[in-house]
């Protein structure tokens, strides 16, 4: 979900210093060569700006002019479309689909490591 944000002169990323999803977005911003400001957010003490912009008060949250986005995958897709060069995904649909499958498998494999829990459910990507 996106919401209207206060106009800012520079793209701003609300980021958790040790949050892996925030780190993913910072990597994309660096790969794209995008100028941005970073606001480090303490998990138990979100700044008022973040509270006002994101009803979930979650990181990462990206503010680009009047647009506010959260959820790392949504932010990364937006950045790849807004700044198309260099592209993050392959040009060809088959290669793009394979890349998405690999990313899904990585996300599924690392989730138990991040949460300390294993759902026990097999990954759909591994079943076929």
UniProtKB/TrEMBL annotation:
Cellular compartments per GO CC: cytoplasm
Coiled-coil ranges per UniProt: none
GST N-terminal domain boundaries: 9-87
InterPro entries hit by this protein: Glutathione_S-Trfase (IPR040079), Glutathione_S-Trfase_N (IPR004045), GST_Omega/HSP26 (IPR050983), SspA_N (IPR034341), Thioredoxin-like_sf (IPR036249)
PANTHER family (alphabetical): GLUTATHIONE S-TRANSFERASE OMEGA, PTHR43968
Protein name: Stringent starvation protein A
């Amino acid at each position: 979900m996106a919401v209207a944000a206060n106009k800012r002169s520079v793209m701003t990323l609300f980021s958790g210093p040790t949050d892996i999803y925030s780190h993913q977005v910072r990597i994309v911003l660096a790969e794209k060569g995008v100028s941005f400001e970073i606001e480090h957010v303490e998990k138990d003490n979100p700044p008022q700006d973040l509270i006002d912009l994101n009803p979930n008060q979650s990181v990462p949250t990206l503010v680009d002019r009047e647009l506010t986005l959260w959820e790392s995958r949504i932010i990364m897709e937006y950045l790849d479309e807004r700044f198309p060069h260099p592209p993050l995904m392959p040009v060809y649909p088959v290669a793009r689909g394979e890349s998405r499958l690999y990313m899904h498998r990585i996300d599924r494999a690392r989730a138990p490591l991040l949460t300390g829990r294993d759902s026990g459910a097999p990954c759909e990507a591994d079943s076929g």
